[in-house]
């Protein structure tokens, strides 16, 4: 998540203080991602250094120092909002790496590991669903975050189910010769190096 651009977006609405930016960030994101006020001020210093925000010069550094977005900052925000994130290469996902490693370890019950993670993910989905039922209608930001998390967790559960099935089928078939797949994935997906 880019705090830099979230702060630019909040400042695009008008001048704000650092503490106000932290509070508004947390409120807009459904209070799911707490933000350290130190991180806010560090990010604001970098934005100011880069000419994307300006501060009240006469104010003392700290909670009473106001910031506003510059024309360059508004332009950078607009570009960021319209630029799709680079999703061509798969992200480093700890669960995927864990399963890939477990497959090659002798004596490891990969199916058991998959089922253990699947159970945990289903419990998380139940927690998010309860949160949605209890508070989702009250806060649009929270409802959107909960929906995103439920879809993400559902996709991970479906991947685990697919991986489990693929591993069971592979156990019945003779192993195919290994070949490096990473380069093929990057080439097919058009990933940048």
Report on the architecture of this protein.
This protein has helices at 3-12, 18-28, 37-49, 71-82, 94-104, 110-135, 140-172, 182-189, and strands at residues 16-17, 53-55, 66-69. Helix 2 (18-28) crosses helix 3 (37-49). Helix content is 64%, strand content 5%. The chain is elongated. Residues 172-193 are annotated as: Disordered. Pfam families: PadR (PF03551), Vir_act_alpha_C (PF10400). This is PadR family transcriptional regulator.
Structural class: mainly alpha
Order of the strands making up the biggest sheet = 1-3-2
Largest sheet: 3 strands, antiparallel
Secondary-structure element series:
HEHHEEHHHHH
Oligomeric grouping of the chains: single chain
Strand portion: under 5%
Average pLDDT confidence is 86
Q: Provide the gyration radius in Å.
A: 23 Å
Helix content: 55-70%
Q: For the terminal residues, how far apart are their CA atoms?
A: 22 Å
Total beta strands: 3
The best one-word shape is elongated
Unreliable parts: none
Supply the number of helical segments.
8
Task: Give a short summary of the structure.
By secondary structure, the chain is mainly α.
SSE blueprint:
Elements (H helix, E strand, L loop, with lengths): L2 H10 L3 E2 H11 L8 H13 L3 E3 L10 E4 L1 H12 L11 H11 L5 H26 L4 H33 L9 H8 L4
Helix pairs in contact: 1-4, 2-3, 5-6, 6-7
Task: Pick out its properties.
elongated, three-stranded antiparallel β-sheet, mainly alpha
